[in-house]
């Protein structure tokens, strides 16, 4: 009996040793897991756009120049394959948006370098270059330099049938005040712009309509737009089944055309139009635009309703917009019944 307490004490000591060993083993395993996790993290110097952006933002937050944008621009000067150039341009675009101070420190030579990528044989490189120029166009001091590439951009969107390229190119053009020297080229590419507007890709259509609305405000381009040939189903663009974003843009386009053709400057000349022109489709005697507009007045989206009403008002008196008393009923695009 006298050995029992001694044995119990030995058992307690053994249990304590086992517990300590178990705890030590758990700590060791936890340490190994953490260490392995750290080793498995992607390298900070990864060339992926996400890693580049993360690294740059971290340094920007600490008030330091990451140097990443300059490194990417320098690497673009080296000989690269198409995939590498596309990825570098994509990373540059991200950096321009995220690192304002570094982007502002770039030079016109950098814009020229990016612009030279528009001549690459690969469309994906062209698209990424357009996106990069769009990013730089948000910095005022680069706009004039980027405008120098507007002729090339117009050439690309009119000769290459690629929806993504159309979207990138048109977004760039819509973010810039187009210079007067680009007007002759704009006249030449007007049929291509109309084809994009009548395509089946909504994002490209929206950008094309936006550009055409801006061009319709240019006195020397208005006739070229109105006389441009379109498909017989052109007014399908105004159907209520179209996406609201597209309807808003084409309605604004119609309003700008109506205002332009009603201006004294435009009315001073007697113009002649092709039978299948924009003018005949929208404003001709056989046009069914009124039916489309009346249907859009009850469109589910309020913005579309409002814009449809604006077009109706602009059409009520084509010769004297806003001077209702001098406008005979016969000049209205809507009959009394309508």
From TrEMBL:
One of its GO terms (biological process) is positive regulation of cell growth. InterPro entries: ARM-like, ARM-rpt_dom, ARM-type_fold, Armc12. Residues 67-263 form the Armadillo repeat-containing domain. Pfam families: Arm_2. GO terms for cellular component: nucleus. This is Armadillo repeat-containing protein 12 isoform X1. It comes from Delphinapterus leucas (Beluga whale).
